[in-house]
Each structure stands twice: as structure tokens, then as C-alpha cells.
Recover the amino acids of this structure.
């Protein structure tokens, strides 16, 4: 029996995927798995019996990844599950920036008592006129699950699309429309594009990458959209560029005290993945990842350990070992199994940076003595018997 704990409300359509072998607990100390959306976990004490954390969403800034890795806790996210919801909001933001729809709606609200509103609207509407996005140049920075969808959809709206991602995955490359111009440097996007939307993770190299140096290379009157992470942009530099006329509109899904209420800033209260469909998709993917890991030892979409998939164990048992990525450690595992007369029928080892993961399928049930020997090997973080 496994127990799981939810730090945030998780869609029932996902939780219903847990079998009768899973029980929900209100005490994180009892849980083998945690499901989370936005709850801050950096200051939490994580119990030794916790095996997995699944973020029902893409960003994992609220989770202490290094701390989890050191404790042998695999952290999952759900890339692509909310991609369509974010994509649609990006285009809503693009249209709001292109035509003063909000200003027009507010004018109507202010004139609700005006008996001549129909006639006066014909005179007033010129103040809210804008431009069409067709035949404009869109730069998409980051061609992951969301960026590819944005780029492809924009081509169907008649935009000339430039895409930039030096680390584009094979799947993303196959999914990208041939109409998208794959650009090898950011400077060309900055120089050429009327609209720029960013879809990259927040890491040290991308923090505040949208800053005065970047804006200086852009067209006057550029529209910038940020539906990825707040700290990808320097808020003060955004306001300065707006005042100078460099930026026409800045559209962001991340409210900050610096930007809220400022002219030419369209600030949305983090609605990107806040659709019923996105929340359902994220919940279902998170539960599926947790189940596959706890039941089979397979790792899919982890952000702190390598991908590893050996399917379903067909032998007498499977041993999962989370460990540091050091030389010679596999030989120590096989030596322990040999000393205990346990034959390894199949095995795999995958690494990611400083951490690694090994799965060992065995022909006979593993003994408690063998498990204790494995746990005592230097650089081993956690050992788990799957079957």
C-alpha cells in the first residue's frame, strides 16, 4: 500500500487514476509521494520515506531540486500537459496588445447610461484602433512544448515566424512547421521581429535576459510577451523601454508590484494554465508518472534524475538504486548480488549530471542482507525493492 499527499488541490480526474493500492494521507510524513502545484517546498522537512514529488505543471521553482536529489527523491513535472492553455492565452495577449480591446470595453462600461451610445461609439472607436497581426514578424524564443505550438499556430494566422532554440529536442524539431524560420542567434529575432514571445525555463543564464541590452537591439514599438517566468524580464528595464517608446506593449502573466497598473503593461494574474483542461491534463500526467515510478521503477519527465524505462518487471524482482554519478559503482552492485547468490537477469544505468539511477532485474527474491549491503555503499542515496 502506497500513501500520497496533496499540497495543493489536484483535479479529481487525476487522483481517480490511483488504484486501490494507494491511499491519500493528510500527513506528509506518512507519504511515499507528494503531488504539488504552487505550494512552496523549499523550507519543508522532507521525510526519508518520501520517494517522489510530482509537480502538476511545468515549472519547478517552488521545489528544492538539489535537496531532493541528495535525499533520493525523484521530482517529476508535466511538460506539455498545459501547453495548449498557455498557447491560447499568448494569442489573447497578442491581440490585446495589438488592438485596444480593453480600452474599448471600458469606454462602453463608462457610457452605459448614454442613450446615444451607438452613435457616439462610431466617433469614439478611432481612439481604440490598432493593427492586425497578419503579415507581422513574430519571434519565438524557446521551442519546447509551448513554443512550438505558438510558432505553428502563428503561421496559420499569417504571421512570419522566427524560432530560436539552441537546444531544441528531436520531438520538437519534428513538430515544428516548415514555415517557421529556425534562427541560430537571438540578435536576428531582436532586430527583425514586431512581436517577441519567450518560452524558456528560468535558470541562471536566462534570468532577466529581457533587459535594456536586449531592448536596445529591438525595433522601436516592439510588443513583448512573457508567459514563461516573471524573472526572465527586468521589470525596471521594461518600464524604461516603454517610456522611451522602444516597447509598445509588455504582456505578462506574472503580476508584480512594479508593473501592475502601469501604462502599456498588460498584466494578467497567472492564468496561463488555469483552464479545466490544463489542470486535468497535468493531474493525470503527474499521477501516471508517480505510479510508473513507484510500481515499476521507471522515471519519465524527471527534472533531477535521468530518464530510465525498463517497462514492467517480468522476473522475480527489481531493485532501484538512486546514487551519485561516480565511477566503479556498478561493479559494487554486481558484487553484492554475487555474494548473496542473486543473479541479475537485466539491468540499466542512466546518469544526469551529478546523479544517476540503476535498475536491476533479478532471478530470485532479493534478501534483506543484500539490500542493507547496497545501502551502505558510498554514494548510494536510496535503495528500493520494486517487487
Amino acid at each position: 500500500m502506497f500513501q500520497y499527499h496533496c499540497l495543493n488541490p489536484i483535479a479529481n480526474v487525476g487522483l481517480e487514476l490511483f488504484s486501490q493500492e494507494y491511499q491519500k494521507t493528510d500527513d506528509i510524513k506518512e507519504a511515499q509521494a507528494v503531488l504539488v502545484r504552487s505550494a512552496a517546498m523549499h523550507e519543508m522537512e522532507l521525510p526519508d520515506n518520501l520517494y517522489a514529488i510530482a509537480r502538476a505543471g511545468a515549472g519547478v521553482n517552488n521545489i528544492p531540486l538539489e535537496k531532493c536529489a541528495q535525499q533520493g527523491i525523484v521530482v517529476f513535472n508535466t511538460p506539455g500537459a498545459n501547453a495548449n492553455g498557455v498557447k491560447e492565452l499568448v494569442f489573447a495577449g497578442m491581440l490585446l496588445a495589438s488592438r485596444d480591446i480593453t480600452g474599448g470595453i471600458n469606454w462602453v462600461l463608462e457610457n452605459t447610461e448614454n442613450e446615444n451610445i451607438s452613435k457616439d461609439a462610431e466617433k469614439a472607436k478611432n481612439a481604440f484602433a490598432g493593427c492586425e497581426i497578419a503579415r507581422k514578424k513574430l519571434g519565438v524564443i524557446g521551442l519546447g512544448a509551448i513554443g512550438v505550438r505558438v510558432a505553428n499556430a502563428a503561421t496559420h494566422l499569417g504571421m512570419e515566424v522566427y524560432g530560436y532554440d539552441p537546444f531544441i529536442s528531436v520531438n520538437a524539431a519534428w513538430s515544428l512547421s516548415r514555415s517557421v524560420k529556425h534562427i541560430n542567434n537571438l540578435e536576428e529575432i531582436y532586430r527583425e521581429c514586431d512581436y517577441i514571445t519567450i518560452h524558456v525555463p528560468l535558470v541562471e543564464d536566462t534570468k532577466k535576459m529581457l533587459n535594456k541590452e536586449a531592448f536596445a537591439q529591438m525595433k522601436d514599438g516592439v510588443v513583448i510577451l512573457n508567459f514563461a517566468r516573471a524573472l526572465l524580464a527586468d521589470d525596471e528595464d521594461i518600464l524604461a523601454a516603454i517610456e522611451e517608446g522602444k516597447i509598445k506593449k509588455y504582456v505578462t502573466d506574472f503580476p508584480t508590484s512594479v508593473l501592475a497598473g502601469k501604462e502599456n503593461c498588460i498584466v494578467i494574474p497567472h492564468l496561463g494554465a488555469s483552464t479545466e483542461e490544463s489542470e486535468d491534463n497535468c493531474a493525470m500526467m503527474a499521477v501516471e508518472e508517480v505510479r510508473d515510478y513507484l510500481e515499476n521503477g521507471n522515471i519519465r519527465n524527471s527534472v533531477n534524475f535521468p530518464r530510465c524505462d525498463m517497462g514492467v518487471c517480468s522476473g522475480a524482482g527489481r531493485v532501484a538504486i538512486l546514487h551519485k554519478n561516480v565511477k566503479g559503482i556498478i561493479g559494487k552492485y554486481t558484487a553484492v548480488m554475487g555474494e548473496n547468490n542473486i543473479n541479475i537477469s537485466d539491468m540499466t544505468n542512466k546518469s544526469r549530471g551529478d546523479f544517476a539511477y540503476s535498475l536491476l532485474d533479478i532471478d530470485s527474491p532479493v534478501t534483506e542482507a543484500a539490500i542493507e549491503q547496497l545501502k551502505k555503499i558510498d554514494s548510494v542515496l536510496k535503495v528500493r525493492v520494486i517487487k
Summary: The first helix runs from residue 12 to 15. The chain has a mean pLDDT of 96. The two ends are 13 Å apart (CA to CA).
